[in-house]
Amino acid sequence: MIIVMQAHATPVDLAQVVSHVEGMGLRPHVIVGTERTVVAVVGAERAATASGLETLPGVASVLPILAPYKVASREVQSEPTVVKAGSLVVGGKRIGVIAGPCAVESREQILETARAVKKLGATGLRGGAFKPRTSPYSFQGLKEQGLQLLAEAREETGLAIVTEVVSPEDVPLVARYADVLQVGARNMQNYRLLEAIGHTHVPVLLKRGPAATLEELLLAAEYILAGGNRQVMLCERGIRTFETHTRFTLPLATIPWLHARTHLPVIVDPSHGTGHANLVESMAAASIAAGADGLIVEVHPDPKLAASDGGQTLDLPAFGQLMSVCRRIAAALDRSLD
Ligand code: PEP
Ligand code: MN
């Protein structure tokens, strides 16, 4: 349920509502908006009606949350969430661009990429240190050494680091280095991982599973939000269909559909979404035109040498071209890329 506070409710009124809810054995999430403060209560809704909440001082109304996802819902928070992770700001008027290789391969590779993408206007640096690979014989990532190289790249360029965490036990280690924890498509429904991330305060990039519905994506986000971590970005990265001309099928209606239902920002990954470098710029541009709050793009100084996903990876000039097109589209929509 949502407890809507009156405009003139005092901090004492709010504290009383919070402790009343806790006394009912439920979890209050206070959301302070510019127009109103609400307390989203998640848990056993049945207790709500008999609880006498409506009569507490400062309470305007008590409403059920209709969507199955609760804290993620627009019903609870009408204003967009702006995720801030160092140099990366995503949501509202700001569009963030996260660029970098699929995997961190070497010091030279990540530093050269970081310097170049920063110069071209990226605000975040991606790079997998723990790679979830389809084959156990493929390159699995440099692990902690990769995280150290990312931290070095951040040190030099100031770019926020976005890197994947693949298992709950690794969360403390990856969270020590990362500015944004990426949950990969294969792990979108790894609920123990989502819970572990929910207990950190590190911003999250949650990728859609290739066979997951958008409602399942929002419920996965809800696991993180319910743990108390509110800095969640959703990422459309393409789904599996019968079509084979692209690696995945990249549905862009996801963007306005999610925006209508959630306050969380929506990012698009046109690299995994298409699987082909020559399709990435168009789909990035289309994503911005459709209202995306950010992009995550694979970029490598020499894609043909990439240890993973080379075929969908842009070289530096191609990334520069993508940025210049996207910057113009963003400006036409009164948004900014930097
Ligand atoms: C990646 O970002 O390199 C990655 C593995 O993506 P996904 O989880 O979307 O497949
Ligand atoms: Mn990749």
Main sheet overview? 8 strands, parallel, barrel
Unreliable residue stretches? none
Q: Helix amount, in percent? A: 25-40%
**N/C terminus separation:** 38 Å
Full CATH superfamily name of the largest domain: Aldolase class I
CATH architecture of the largest domain: Alpha-Beta Barrel
Number of domains: 2
CATH topology of the largest domain: TIM Barrel
User: What ligands can be seen in this structure?
Assistant: phosphoenolpyruvate, manganese (II) ion
| Morphology | globular
> What's the overall average pLDDT, rounded?
95
Can you tell me the CATH class of the largest domain?
A: Alpha Beta
* Rg: 21 Å
Order of helices and strands: EHEEEEEEHEHEHEHEHEHEHHEH
Strand percentage: 15-25%
What is the number of helical segments per DSSP (H or I, 4+ residues)? 10
Give a description of the structure.
The chain has 338 residues and is an alpha/beta fold. It has two domains: 2-63, Alpha-Beta Plaits (2-Layer Sandwich), CATH 3.30.70.1140; 83-332, TIM Barrel (Alpha-Beta Barrel), CATH 3.20.20.70. Helix content is 33%, strand content 18%. It has an eight-stranded parallel beta barrel with strand order 7-8-9-10-11-12-13-14, surrounded by six helices. It has a four-stranded antiparallel beta sheet with strand order 2-3-1-4, with helices on one face. A two-stranded antiparallel ribbon has the order 5-6. Helix 4 links the parallel strand 9 and strand 10. The protein is globular and about 65 Å long. The chain starts with a strand and ends in a 6-residue tail after the last helix. Manganese (II) ion binds at residues 102, 272, 298, 308-309.
